[in-house]
Amino acid sequence: MTVDTKTDMEYVTQELCWQRLCILKDAGDGFSGVDYWLKHVLVFDVLEEKWGGEATFGFKAYGQKMFDLMSVSLDADPNSQEYRDAYRLTWRLLTVSTTQKI
Predict the structure, then answer these.
(1) Is the pTM of this model over 0.70?
(2) pLDDT 10s digit of each residue in the chain, 102 long?
(3) Angle (nearest 5°) at CA 80 between 78 and 66
(4) Helix, strand, coil shares of the chain as percentages rounded to 5?
(5) What is d(CA 55, CA 49) in angstroms, rounded to the nearest whole number?
(6) Which pairs from 95-99 meet CB under 8 Å and 24+ separation?
(7) Are 56 and 92 in contact (CB under 8 A)?
(8) FRET pair for 27, CA 20 to 30 Å: which of 12, 50, 68, 100?
(9) Who contacts 26 (Cβ-Cβ below 8 Å, separation ≥6)?
């Protein structure tokens, strides 16, 4: 599935607005984004879950290498390093990672 540019930019804008809101200190109206963040936002490390391929193969492998691994044919030699990496990546993503809805 492809996300159109407008939808992608709306999502990024929403994220930036949220980040800006959370770093605001009391601007005279009594609301503190910092206090809100500290008291009401649950934060946890999602590197292993959301960036599974990168956690497995490293961030330098992101992009073309991942695309190439996901393009390996099922008919390829199962003993080849490329096939083993593709197998490892696929099962890592399917069993441990999640997807992100935009």
Answers:
(1) no
(2) 677 899 889 989 999 999 998 898 887 888 899 998 899 988 877 777 777 777 777 777 667 788 888 899 999 999 999 999 999 888 888 887 776 554
(3) 95
(4) 60, 0, 40
(5) 9
(6) 96/48, 96/49, 96/52, 97/49, 97/50, 97/52, 97/53, 98/49, 98/50
(7) yes
(8) 12
(9) 32
